[in-house]
Fold:
Amino acid sequence: MTTVLIVDDQALQRLGFSMLLEQHPDLTVVGEATHGAEAVRSTAELRPDVVLMDVRMPGMDGIEATRRIVESGGRSRVLVLTTFDLDEYAYAALRAGASGFLLKDALPDELVAGIRAVAAGDAVIAPGLTRKLIDAYTERRPGHTREQERRLDALTDREREVLTAIASGWSNAEIADRLSLAESTVKSHVSRVLAKVGVRDRVQAVIFAYDVGLVRPA
Structure:
């Protein structure tokens, strides 16, 4: 069972999301919040698997709430939803530690799949935003740190290959096929890569790979 906290300042949006999710037996809504500060408190109390986070809310917005939830070190992962197709929001959300970013006009099946993916430790980004995000991020990329270099150096050659593949957007199945590995072996490599470079999920691994210059935009 995947538990979800819905965060949105509009009651009709919260109701709609709740009704959609409750149609799926593997998903359950454990709570709702109307603004960022309430989301932070509710996440600490309820420890949901996934926080479905709006961006624009009165008081503390979804970006700051995401940052505080991630910095708390809890188990909850954040999937950001917004009506605004603006690179700045997506960029800020992912830098704050969100595990995914979708637009509110996503199809119901896309939203449900996104929640399941984030709960499983994968990442999800709205179609069409990936290229924009990479370009925007690379333009502002500050130099990498010695600590990041140390973490990169801790990877084996195979683990570097896997990190490069993750940053290129390959799925575990694609990595297995292209590197001639069993998918179970790829999953083990991915887990070790995330642990060694000190990131929570594949989105943050992509950011790390661009930070250290392991991959660059095509």
